[in-house]
Amino acid sequence: MAKENKGKKGNAITGFFIGRGISFNFLKRNPVPIILIISLLMINIGVKFTEDLRRQQILNYRSELKNVRAQYIKVSIKYQNKTRESEMLKRIDKLNLSIGIPEQPAYNLDKTEGE
User: Rounded to an integer, what distance in angstroms lies between the CA atom of residue 11 and that of residue 14?
Assistant: First the structure.
């Protein structure tokens, strides 16, 4: 008897995988719930797929943002170095432009009423 039970159990499992688990009459009697369940499963798979794609896009955008921030800092440091007064004076001397800082500030000439 033990051998017969094992054989039936094995046949039931293999029969289920072959497609004998659900009878054709059950499918005929319940087409709407079966279609509904299958469509809900497909929608769930689609939603998970789009969530994974969006999550990957967010991760890509975050890494790109980190790279852009680092690049921004590098560029701003280069710009600040180029615009410093000492750096400008070195460039003027290097190019022999004979331009310097005046001793006195520039004066604004205003038109007076008496003239």
Answer: 5
CA distance 18 to 5: 20
- Alpha carbon distances (Å) from 11 to 5, 16, 90, 109: 10, 8, 91, 108
Question: Do residues 34 and 27 make contact, with C-beta atoms less than 8 angstroms apart?
Answer: yes
Contact 21, 15 (CB under 8 A): yes
| Unique residue bearing structure tokens 């499992």 | 13
CB neighbourhood size of 89 (10 A): 13
% of the chain surpassing 90 pLDDT: 38
User: Is 80 exceeded by the pLDDT of residue 30?
Assistant: yes
